[in-house]
Write a structure and sequence with these properties.
The chain is an alpha+beta fold. The protein is built from six helices and eleven strands.
Length: 244
């Protein structure tokens, strides 16, 4: 439907209602206008379509009623002044009524949307808890060559606590001790720094090497290393250790 046709369908019934009320005696049009106001209040939040019809008949019926009033007063300048004052008061009351009805609807919707106090009391606070259970570390001591699945290496010692690891892939780890471990999934190779000064972590999947002085490996969680400052420190993930 064209915009002009939609406008005519919307305006013509309303204009016809205004003319009809204006042609009636004011004492006959007044009950119709009051009935429209009562219907807008009664059907509000019950039958939305009927409530909207009553609001429209009230808005368009009020000008017709005021025209009938000024006609009954003689149609002179004083009558038109009285009609204009009546229009000011009448439309102000209509706007106030609609504002109160709309405000009541918004308050009702907000009250329905808000949960009960019992639901709030039982609702979890903050993010769900995740319990960290670290898998224990299986340290080994190497002397010469060793093979562990896909990982083959030899340890070339310079003295009792110093040496380097040479892996079959060509990777080397210098200034390490012969004490090492491998993560349960095989991704990480960890060796103690010489002199027990920290840990050397090799991420075999991405080829990254981390030398973490002052940190001790505490365990594994989902094949990821967790480390602590000293034997009594609180374990944290490698991401926190690296500050990521």
């Amino acid at each position: 439907m064209a915009p002009v046709a939609r406008w005519l369908v919307r305006i013509l019934p309303a204009a016809t209602w205004t003319v009809f009320v204006a042609l009636l005696p004011w004492w006959a049009g007044l009950p119709l206008v009051l009935l429209s106001a009562a219907g807008a209040v009664a059907f509000d939040r019950r039958i939305v379509r009927y409530a909207e019809w009553c609001r429209r008949t009230l808005r368009w019926g009020l000008p017709g009623l005021l025209f009938a009033v000024q006609r009954a007063l003689g149609g002179d300048l004083i009558a038109w002044g009285a009609a204009l004052l009546g229009a000011l008061a009448g439309f102000s009351l209509v706007v106030l009524m609609e504002s109160l009805l709309d405000h009541r609807v918004r308050r009702t919707q907000a009250a329905q949307a808000s949960p009960e106090w019992s639901e709030l009391a039982l609702a979890p606070v903050g993010p769900p808890a995740h319990i960290i259970e670290l898998a224990r570390i299986e340290w080994r001591e190497i002397a010469g060559e060793f093979s562990d699945g896909t990982l083959a290496a030899r340890f070339e010692a310079t003295d009792a606590e110093h040496g380097r690891y040479v892996f079959g892939q060509g990777q080397t780890i210098d200034r390490a001790s012969p004490r090492f471990c491998i993560s349960p999934g095989g991704r990480w190779f960890v060796a103690n720094m010489s002199g027990g000064r920290g840990e050397i972590l090799w991420d075999r999947q991405h080829g990254h090497m981390h030398r973490l002085a002052g940190w001790q490996l505490s365990g594994w969680e989902h094949d990821q290393p967790w480390l602590a400052r000293g034997s009594d420190g609180v374990p944290v993930s490698l991401h926190e250790v690296l500050g990521r």
